[in-house]
Amino acid sequence: MRTWLVRSTALAVAAGAAIVAGAVPASSNEADVTTLHAVLTGAAERPGPGDTDGRGAFAAIVRGDTLCYTLVAVRIEPATAAHIHIAPPTAPGPIVIGLDTPDPVSHGCITAVPDDQNSTSTLTESELAALVANPGDYYVNVHNASFQPGAIRGQLR
């Protein structure tokens, strides 16, 4: 069972990357593409505990000012929210980007706005630049009713 789960999670990440690759607007410079990914588990949730059965995968492509992603969450109760937060692997942190809630899959594209148009519900260009520069400083997590602080979590790479 464990081997199947690892393979299915890897397949989900690969499929998600392919989906978002087609969704990101074309750019004149392919070097400006950044890929991000994470494997989500309940054991990684901080402060914990997370859902020990839960698993997930996140894949994203950033091109220019647009982040497109696919998020998969399995073996958890229905998700109620999903986010990208900023914090090291050992701590919880504040929300930086809201994501569509997976059921069990979600995907979308978010275009960053100029910093002077910042509001609590938007991603700014400087926040996106910081994410691209240091993805390991960020994590993805999925919440549900039983695990409101977070059911599953994975640090970005």
Automatic annotation (TrEMBL):
The keyword Transmembrane helix does not apply. Transmembrane segments: none annotated. Pfam families: CHRD. Residues 1-26 form the signal peptide. The keyword Ribosomal protein does not apply. It comes from the Bacteria. Keywords: Signal. Residues 34-157 form the CHRD domain. This is CHRD domain-containing protein.
